[in-house]
Specification:
With 160 residues, the chain is mainly α. Helix content is 82%, strand content 0%.
Length: 160
């Protein structure tokens, strides 16, 4: 597989990760489609195992998201800026403390955004709790599943 094709797969996966944070964009499906595209071009045992594994992870991920309460974005104060802070925090946490760091990074990103917006610790904690109850849990579950798939793909590309 050529370097430009790897770049395209990486960009589609990145778009999928961002799509998890944006309403209406099918983030997990973009991540899965990029994995499918990569597996079809590489056609190795590792590629097929990753495709099957990512399919299972993303299907279980979708089942868990459907079991959670529906997202209630309005009335909680979720902004695009907060979503980007949360996503950046999850991504940073994912690499600082591999895999599990995405969870505190996501929550920390929401807290940081709210601390900056509201100016104090108490109101920021209260707002972070409200956001996590309304939308945070389902977004976090979806983002975590996609990060697992992207992390496995990156591991296969760099070390496989």
């Amino acid at each position: 597989m050529g370097a430009w094709q790897l770049l395209m797969v990486g960009l589609v996966m990145l778009l999928g990760l961002v799509g998890v944070l944006l309403p209406g964009v099918p983030g997990p499906w973009l991540v899965w489609a990029a994995m499918l595209w990569w597996s079809m071009h590489v056609q190795s045992g590792l590629a097929w195992v990753l495709l099957v594994g990512s399919t299972v992870v993303l299907l279980v991920n979708q089942a868990v998201v459907w079991l959670l309460p529906p997202r209630r974005v309005r009335g909680v104060g979720v902004t695009r800026r907060m979503a980007m802070f949360a996503g950046a925090g999850a991504l940073a946490g994912f690499f600082v403390l591999p895999v599990l760091g995405a969870i505190p990074g996501f929550i920390g990103g929401i807290y940081g955004s709210e601390r900056h917006r509201l100016g104090g610790h108490g109101p920021a904690v209260t707002s972070t709790r409200a956001v996590m109850r309304a939308v945070g849990t389902s977004v976090l579950v979806e983002l975590f599943g996609c990060l697992l798939v992207v992390g496995a793909w990156l591991g296969a590309v760099f070390w496989g």
